[in-house]
Write a structure and sequence with these properties.
Blueprint lengths: L3 E6 L3 E8 L12 E7 L1 H11 L3 E8 L1 H5 L7 E5 L5 E8 L5 E5 L10 H12 L5 E5 L10 H11 L4 E4 L2 H7 L6 E2 L3 H8 L6 H13 L4 E5 L5 E5 L2 E6 L11 H13 L7 H16 L9 H7 L4 E5 L4 H5 L1
Parallel strand pairs: 1-4, 1-8, 2-6, 4-5, 8-9, 9-10, 10-11
Antiparallel strand pairs: 2-3, 6-7, 11-12, 12-13, 13-14
This protein binds adenosine-5'-diphosphate and 1,6-di-O-phosphono-beta-D-fructofuranose (FBP).
């Protein structure tokens, strides 16, 4: 059977990249170049999975024109539920690579049956998939519990599932036994109420969630790499030097690397998965637009990733 991975994007977006020399608050800017591509977290994950040689398909909510767009170049099966598609704008500065993001909230779901239709679509595909990624924000009119609900059904069907969501959706997803979470530092802080600055602090913040049944937390730490916490241990992975480029979509590339490994259904080698996730996301930073990696760079970067096993936090530390 071919490995098939499904991604769910409930709030897709046209990813816009505006390149300017230098961005100054309060000033007018002549934009040097504009790039537009269809994105949103799950769609970006799908693109990177295709680059990694995996067969991936995308679902979620969209408007009619978006779902039909030839540009998508991937098997899609969206529920037509949004009257229009939002834009997510990154202002990228040529001078030093600084990226400033403006994320539109997007439309409310207009179809009263949309949630049910999406749940039916995902559950219908569960027997045929080896991995599921549910990622990104939700449009208005959708309950924050939907990602957790979809994840619960997938895990019950033995499908490895990543939820890369924030806020109340993350809190509810963290209650689903077997789920894999990929929060960034700020999301982990909002979830746990701790300020996880160092890798050890990330592991200490994540450990109680693992003890309550989360399968793995892969915390992304921007240019400082990632920390993975599982029931078998905790590891930190870093690069000797940060990359300069556009980090938008780097988290999506990391999710693609993790689900790609888990879809193979062998016992997960978490340190190896973490190394690949760090290399893949760094390779995404090198590409100016979101949702694409530099494959040669990924191969080159992987052997340079520094992996460290973290000491287990004492029960007292985790309980604080
Ligand atoms: N400047 C960078 N250099 C190298 N890798 C980076 C850089 N910025 C981000 N990454 C990689 O991308 C991952 C995701 O980025 P991060 O900003 O933490 O997530 P998100 O975009 O989801 O908020 C990081 O954990 C890291 O591995
Ligand atoms: O759905 P959200 O949370 O608003 O995020 C949407 C945005 O996230 C991105 O996929 C980037 O995500 P990451 O930087 O976390 O990988 C953008 O390309 C996209 O438009």
């Amino acid at each position: 059977m071919v490995d098939v991975i499904l991604t769910v994007t409930m709030n897709p977006a046209y990813d816009m990249t505006y390149r300017v020399e230098r961005f100054e608050r309060g000033q007018a800017h002549r934009v040097r170049s504009v790039e537009q591509r269809i994105g949103g977290k799950g769609i970006n994950v799908t693109r990177v999975l295709n680059q990694l040689g995996k067969y991936a398909r995308a679902t979620g909510f969209s408007d009619h024109a978006f779902a039909a767009a030839a540009e998508l170049e991937m098997p899609v099966d969206f529920v037509h539920a949004l009257p229009w598609v939002r834009r997510t704008v990154v202002i990228s500065e040529s001078e030093d690579g600084t990226a400033t993001a403006l994320w539109e909230p997007g439309a409310r779901v207009s179809n009263p049956h949309a949630v049910e239709q999406l749940a039916v679509r995902v559950s219908g595909l569960l027997p045929d998939i080896n991995g599921l990624v549910i990622s990104g924000s939700l449009p208005g009119g959708v309950s924050p519990g939907l990602p957790a609900e979809l994840a619960r059904a997938a895990i019950a069907a033995n499908v490895p599932t990543i939820c890369d969501v924030d806020g109340e959706s993350l809190r509810l997803a963290a209650q689903v036994p077997g789920v894999i979470l990929m929060p960034n530092t700020e999301e982990l802080e909002r979830l746990t109420g701790r300020v996880p600055l160092t890798p050890d602090e990330v592991a200490t913040a994540a450990r109680p969630l693992i003890d309550r049944g989360v399968r793995a937390i892969i915390a992304t730490r921007g240019a400082d790499g990632m920390v993975a916490v599982t029931s078998t241990g905790a590891w930190s992975a870093t690069l000797p030097e940060p990359m300069s480029g556009n980090p938008t979509g780097a988290g999506d590339s990391a999710a693609a690397a993790v689900i790609s490994a888990l879809s193979e259904r062998t016992e997960p080698d978490w340190p190896a998965i973490l190394i690949d996730a760090v290399a893949t996301s760094a390779a995404a930073v090198l590409i100016p637009v979101a949702g694409e990696i530099d494959r040669c760079a990924r191969t080159r970067i992987a052997p340079t990733v520094v992996i460290e096993k973290l000491a287990e936090p004492s029960t007292q530390d985790s309980a604080k």
